[in-house]
Amino acid sequence: MAWLEHEAYCTAIVEETARLRDTLRGSDPGAKVPTCPGWTLHELAAHVGQAHRWAETIVGTRAEKYLPENQVPDYEAPAGEKLDSWLAEGAERFAATLREAGPELPVWTWARPQQAGFWARRMVLETLVHRADAALATWSEYHAPAELAADAIDEWLEIITDPLAVEQTPELVELRGHGQTLHLHATDSPAGLVAEWVIERGPESVTWRREHAKGDVALRAPLTDLLLAFYRRLPLDSDRVQVLGDRELLDHWLARTAF
């Protein structure tokens, strides 16, 4: 599916980081994050801010190969109240660098396309999902903007069906099948946004498309909850989601896309 406009990602990286900061503000930095085993809230925040700075340095230096962390300025996350401004400054600087670069600037990435636009999208969606982790850890409300939630589902499907990723990840080979289909259905998608997906498990590859169709198993929920369930942040037995059909088929999928 088509990506969002580059400027939309540049704006969203600042907005999503601000929402993350709001979620973290006043919380215990040592609190555990249930959906990221082994992480505290401070470590979650540090990860997001470090990812922003790493990607910003890749784009800003026009890196042509993997960039080691020790080459990223201001990489270490501060403790205490300074963490909030550190997150804000990193997001603002990243957005400015992305705007200057434009989406088609050639840079190193770990997936296609090898352009600055990859990092704009990837880091927005990384922040969107980790904001959910922070919200779940702090018992805060969470809502994902509809276009970003749908784009995050698209991106995850793109990553796990990419032939190169499949070659390097044995679990993804096990997603192949004999024509079984999964249907993801957002029950509250706004007008003009197709928020339904059909995934088909073929013997040679897994394919997907945005479309309304009957599947062997259907996962139905409001779009934010659909995103959380598909990213394994919300259990399938939650009363916020509905599973119809072959539950084992969906369990099998989620178990092999948990990396």
TrEMBL record:
InterPro entries: DinB/YfiT-like, Maleyloyr_isom, MDMPI_C-term_domain, MDMPI_metal-binding
Protein name: Maleylpyruvate isomerase family mycothiol-dependent enzyme
Pfam annotation, one family: MDMPI_N
Keywords: Isomerase
NCBIfam families: maleylpyruvate isomerase family mycothiol-dependent enzyme
Domain spans labelled Mycothiol-dependent maleylpyruvate isomerase metal-binding: 11-135
GO molecular function, one term: isomerase activity
Residues in MDMPI C-terminal domain copies: 147-251
Gene3D superfamilies in the record: dinb family like domain
